[in-house]
Predict the structure.
Amino acid sequence: QRGSYVSDRSLRFDFSHFQKMTDEELQQLEDMVNDKIRANIPLDEQRAIPVEEAKTAGAMMLFGEKYGDLVRMITFDPEFSRELCGGTHVQATGEIGLFKIVSESAVAAGIRRIEAITADQAQNFIKVELGTLDALRGLFKNSKDVLRSATALQEENKALKKEIERLQAAQAAGLKDDLLK
C-alpha cells in the first residue's frame, strides 16, 4: 500500500505494481470484495493491545507508519483482513452494500491507483450505466445484442467511408478528363 483515502461512499487505494491491471484482474478483485461484503463479516475490534501482540497476530502494519506501544487492531475475517487502524469502521461488511471499481490508473512510476465507489453511490452509478445501455438499445431499435449492433454500425460506417473515397476519386478523375477536353 502506498496511500489511500476511504470514506463511506468511495475509496482511493494506491499500491506498488509493475503494470496496468487487466480487466480480468480488476473483475476478480471486485468480485472478491463483493463476496466479503455479502458474507456480512462482523467487526472484531481490539483496542489498546500491545503492538508486539498485534504483530504476532499478523496485523498488517504499513511501512513507514509510527505506532505507539498500544494499538487498535481491526479484523474482518482473520484469514483475510487484520490491520492496525485509527479510523472508523462499519460494524459488519454487509453495511457497505456494493463495491464498484470505477478506474485503475498510474499515479507515479511503479505506483497504481484504484478508485472505487460503494453503497448508494455504486448503486446510482449502475443505474446510470443501465440507463445508457437502455438508450443505446433504443437507438438500435431495442436490439438484444447492442455490442453486435454497434460493431455492425462501425463496419458499415467504414465501408461507406471507403465508398465515398472511391466515388470522390472517380469524380475527380472525371473532372480532370472534362478539364483536359
Observations:
- The mean pLDDT is 90.
- The helical segments are 23-38, 51-57, 119-139, 146-180.
- The two ends are 76 Å apart (CA to CA).
